[in-house]
Amino acid sequence: MPLFAKREMTMIVFAVLLPLLCLGFGMALARAFFYKEDGLIQIWMGGVWGLAAFIWLPCLWAFLASFGIFAQLAAGATAAIGLTVTVWWNKKQSIPPLKISHWKGAVACCLPLWLFCFYLLHTHTLRVWEDGSLHTGQSTYGDMAMHLGFFTSISEQKVFPPKYSLLVGHNVGYPFLCDSVSSSLYTLGVSLRWSYILPALWALAVVFLGAYLLFHSWLKQSAKAVLAFVLFFVGGGFGFVYFLGGGWENFFRIFTAFYETPTNYVEENIYWVNPVADLLIPQRATLMGWALLFACLYLLYRAAIEGEYRYFVPLGILAGGLPLIHTHSFLALGILSAVLMLADIVRKPKFSTVIPWLTYGGITLVLAAGQLFGFTFQQAQGEQFVRLSWNWINQKDNYFWFYIKNIGVVYLCLIPAFLHADKKSRLFYGSSLGILAISEILIFQPNPYDNNKLLFIWHLLGCGLVANLLWDLYKKYAPKLWAKAAFGLVVFLATFGGVLTLGREAVSDYQLFSAEDVQAAEYIKENTPSKALVLTANNHNNLVAALTGRNILCGSPSYLYYHGVHYTAESNAATQLYQQPSMELLHQWGIDYVLISRHERGQFTVDEQWYQQNTTLLFQKGDISLYQVEQ
């Protein structure tokens, strides 16, 4: 696929300018807010604020108008004005030039992992095969079609806030700003594939750099920061043991079977996934959320632990933008902040202690209230959401054994690492125990598995705590050969499962759409109204919803159920419309087009003869037929 779809050159130029203007605006803001910080932190924060502007500015204008060209142009103009004003302010304040230190550790761990993720995005994102089919990888086979459906429908239909294209007429029950950022590029003419990849690359860069700089600011040593980074992003539990017996065939199925890896092996109660393979690459909300959240954690550490209260203001602004990007990140930050605020008040019980926290909370709530009351709380209604449940997703094992085999070395070392740590580290990690406690007794969404989006923030701080212990022990006994061997063995045991999982992801390949699917999608996109309603099967890799941005009557239950959406009526109607069709029923549901392919024939006993006799055949290729319903 080319980088740009067929668009006028002016739109292509602006597709390049919009993210660059937002990035420049973010860099200027970072220089204004954080000029006393190391240059690398300023660059990272610039990337974070620039990404936040790129996500939010088009949407703010789209709320006022629609998600079309005007919203993108207005967003670019806003970023340009903000950039100009902030640069003028910075010059007036005589801000000193950038000075970068401790960059080697950042490059050593962040760059290789970012390049590896670039490769995964290349192989997993609508990779065109020789026969014209579109392929993906293991981790993205399930979620990618949903995200494509969100951002193509936002761009094509221009309705904002968006409605479900997967269930026509219903509000989207998902933090949709993680996908609207791709809608902006797609609207300006960037191809479907690159509209998906480019924002992800930006977000991955600030996630990785943010994790390293958070660990470095906290642990004060590059080596400890690198070790903590590796434990978190490459780490895995002891699930690899299940693949060591039974000969080579048992081991090599890691690289061939679908989701039987050392970090995701449901049959043996292994659920603690690798964050790169199973969260950052496939889950757009987690990726975009962590891009902002890790910056928030850094600011929270500086403000609450190190007493730099001035950082509560930028923290409040960033936190206020999180709910519609990633609700779990907003919740995790809220729990950490509440625990640290109470600890601060207990240590210094006077009103002056509360004022900075009230400032932070006030800014956050003012910015987040509209998102929470207008979207999040409405989306999270029903019995599938907040409910009591003990021990997260574990139903087979002893409480401690479940976490030992799932998380491995890091979990085993948490208590000695806590005892070894200084008071500030204990307090910072201790705040994450609030996340653990709440996640062990409450499920916040229909799928219990998704509580891991909270638990991984507890794990993030746990990796920092354990890295501090392991490196101190290594340095204490480093001259001795046995100490070096022991340290190597511990790191190996902590990461072997993760390395195998990442290796599996690198070689995985699955067809997501056939060549005929692609041709049918191109025809639909070019020859039907953008808000047309198409009757299809509910397969997750739905060519209409994912590739054209058109509406379908009822999408995949694997998406809709876990978003808490009721779809029974539409699902029953789809069955009747395929098996006992009538023109009256088609008009009743507002159906404009009917798709019949291998998916529809597999799900229903389709009365194709009726459609051949009563509707107009518009497109036929291979096993795919598209019929138009006369209105």
3D structure, described in words:
- The chain has 27 helices and 10 strands.
- It has helices spanning 9-33, 39-64, 69-92, 103-124, 140-157, 177-187, 192-219, 222-233, 247-252, 275-280, 284-305, 312-320, 327-347, 351-379, 399-407, 409-412, 414-420, 423-441, 452-477, 481-507, 515-527, 543-548, 557-560, 568-579, 583-588, 598-603, 608-614; strands at 127-128, 134-136, 387-388, 442-443, 510-513, 533-535, 551-552, 593-596, 616-621, 624-628.
Rg from alpha-carbon coordinates: 25 Å
Q: For this entry, what is the oligomeric state of its chains?
A: single chain
- Quick one: how many beta strands? 10
Mean pLDDT: 93
Q: Beta-strand level of the residues, as a percent range?
A: 5-15%
| Main beta sheet strand tally, sense and closure | 5 strands, mixed
Morphology: globular
Secondary structure: helix percent: 55-70%
Distance linking N and C termini:
36 Å
Helix-and-strand structural type = mainly alpha
- Segments where pLDDT lies below 50 for 5+ residues? none
Strand order of the largest sheet: 7-6-8-10-9
Total helices: the number is 27
What are the SSEs and their pairings?
Blueprint: H1 9-33, H2 39-64, H3 69-92, H4 103-124, E1 127-128, E2 134-136, H5 140-157, H6 177-187, H7 192-219, H8 222-233, H9 247-252, H10 275-280, H11 284-305, H12 312-320, H13 327-347, H14 351-379, E3 387-388, H15 399-407, H16 409-412, H17 414-420, H18 423-441, E4 442-443, H19 452-477, H20 481-507, E5 510-513, H21 515-527, E6 533-535, H22 543-548, E7 551-552, H23 557-560, H24 568-579, H25 583-588, E8 593-596, H26 598-603, H27 608-614, E9 616-621, E10 624-628
Helix pairs in contact: 1-2, 1-3, 2-3, 2-6, 2-7, 4-7, 4-8, 5-6, 6-7, 7-8, 7-11, 8-19, 11-12, 11-13, 12-14, 13-14, 13-18, 17-19, 18-19
